[in-house]
C-alpha cells in the first residue's frame, strides 16, 4: 500500500484565517467513484503536556469550551506555533502559560493524526516529569480556565466515567502514564 488509493481531481479553498483552512476536494476512489465535496480541515499541529508532579499528580486544567457550551477537564496544550522550535517546546510553553508549571524532564512521546478522516494535523504527546509551579498562569485572552493538579488515580477514574472533555487527551494520558511507568498497559514498548 504505497500509492494513495484516492486521487484529488480538484481542490477549492473555502475559508482561510489564522486558525483554520477549510477546503473542498473532489476525489476519485480506487474503484472509480467520484465524491464531492470532501471537506478537509487544515489545522496547525497541536501539542499537549502530560505533566506529572513528584507527588504523582497530573497537572490538568478545567477550561470553558464555547462549542460544547461546557467546562472541560483537559491537559494543558495548544497550537504548535511557527515560533516553536518543536512540538516539545510548544508543550513546555503551553504548560507554563496555562498553569504556571514547568517540569524537570521532558520527552516527546509521539505525534498522531487528530482526526485522519477530515483533518491534516497531528496531536503531539509530550511527557513532563517533576512538574512544579514556577510562575502564575498567563492564559491567552480567549482562555478561561482553572489549574487542577489531580492524583493519577483520580484522573483515570474521571476518564473511565467519561468526564474528560477531550477524547484525544484520554489516549495521551494513558500512553504517557505507561511511558512514565505509572500504569502498565499490555503490549507497551519498554
Can you tell me about this structure?
Helices cover 18% and strands 42% of the residues. By secondary structure, the protein is α+β, with helices and mostly antiparallel strands. It has two domains: 7-42; 46-179, Nucleoside Triphosphate Pyrophosphohydrolase. The strands form four sheets. A four-stranded mixed sheet has the order 7-4-10-9. Strand 5 (57-65) and strand 6 (70-74) form a beta hairpin. The radius of gyration is 19 Å and the shape is globular. 23% of the residues are buried.
Structure keywords:
single chain; 190 residues; alpha+beta; Nucleoside Triphosphate Pyrophosphohydrolase; 3-stranded antiparallel β-sheet; 3 helices; globular
Nutshell version of this structure?
This protein has 190 residues and is α+β, with helices and mostly antiparallel strands. It has 3 helices and 12 strands.
CATH level-1 class of the largest domain: Alpha Beta
Largest beta sheet, briefly?
Answer: 4 strands, mixed
Helix-strand pattern? EEEEEEEHEEEEEHH
Number of DSSP-assigned strands: 12
The SS-based structural class is alpha+beta
What share of residues is helical?
10-25%
Q: Give the overall silhouette.
A: globular
| Number of helices, where a helix is a run of at least 4 consecutive DSSP H or I residues | 3
* CATH homolog superfamily of the largest domain: Nucleoside Triphosphate Pyrophosphohydrolase
Low-confidence blocks of residues? none
Strand order of the largest sheet: 7-4-10-9
Oligomer: single chain
Question: How far is the first residue's CA from the last residue's CA?
Answer: 29 Å
* Total domain count: 2
Strand content: 35-45%
The name of the CATH topology of the largest domain is: Nucleoside Triphosphate Pyrophosphohydrolase
In the CATH hierarchy, the architecture of the largest domain is: Alpha-Beta Complex
User: What is the average per-residue confidence, as pLDDT, rounded to a whole number?
Assistant: 94
Amino acid at each position: 500500500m504505497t500509492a494513495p488509493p484516492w486521487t484529488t481531481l480538484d481542490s477549492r479553498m473555502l475559508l482561510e484565517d489564522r486558525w483554520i483552512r477549510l477546503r473542498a476536494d473532489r476525489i476519485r476512489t480506487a474503484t472509480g467513484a467520484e465524491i464531492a465535496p470532501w471537506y478537509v480541515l487544515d489545522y496547525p499541529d497541536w501539542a499537549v503536556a502530560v505533566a506529572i508532579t513528584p507527588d504523582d499528580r497530573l497537572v490538568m486544567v478545567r477550561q470553558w469550551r464555547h462549542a460544547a457550551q461546557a467546562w472541560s477537564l483537559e491537559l494543558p496544550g495548544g497550537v504548535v506555533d511557527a515560533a516553536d522550535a518543536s512540538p516539545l517546546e510548544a508543550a513546555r510553553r503551553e504548560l507554563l502559560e496555562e498553569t504556571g508549571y514547568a517540569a524537570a524532564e521532558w520527552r516527546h512521546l509521539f505525534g498522531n493524526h487528530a482526526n485522519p478522516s477530515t483533518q491534516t494535523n497531528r496531536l503531539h504527546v509530550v511527557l513532563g516529569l517533576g512538574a512544579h509551579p514556577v510562575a502564575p498562569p498567563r492564559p491567552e485572552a480567549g482562555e478561561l480556565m482553572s489549574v487542577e493538579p489531580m492524583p493519577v488515580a483520580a484522573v483515570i477514574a474521571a476518564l473511565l466515567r467519561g468526564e474528560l472533555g477531550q477524547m484525544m487527551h484520554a489516549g495521551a494520558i494513558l500512553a504517557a502514564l505507561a511511558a512514565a511507568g505509572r500504569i502498565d498497559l499490555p503490549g507497551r514498548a519498554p
